[in-house]
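Shipment paperwork, digital attachment
Item: protein structure file
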Amino acid sequence: MVRTAGPKDVIGAMILTVLTAACAETTAPRDILLARQQLDTHLEQCTARYGYDPETASGLGPYSLGAGEREWRECVYEGVEKFLIPKTLSPEVYRNAIVEDRQMTAAVASGKMTRSERSERIQKLIEEIQRIEEANSAKLQQQSIGEQDMMLLMRRTLSPLTRP
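Attachment content:
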């Protein structure tokens, strides 16, 4: 006797398809690590292209920008947009950080904020982003565990349906 697909078979197949797609999203922590590596390479290229390196910039006044600094920063923003934002679950955090950095850089250039004040704020932004990415990773891991449990349950539930 040939068995035809019933409503349970169709629903089961749909749930398995959704869960499989959701499990594919759990690669995000690896994706964001790769994106950060790509950004590091991009930063090196920005430094080579514009001759500015925030790690070695010295002799700058508290309210002055280094030669090529503004261009270097724009290059960094492009890298964040290209490599990090497409891979994160929280793109708005990165976009907000870019907006804030642009504002702070303008404030430094206009004498309204010192370089050290901007540096302190940037450090806080980086820490905030790291906390958010860690929370995203933990959520995905929990979600993955739940999805694996659901897949096992579905297999057990559907196994009688697959028998001839």
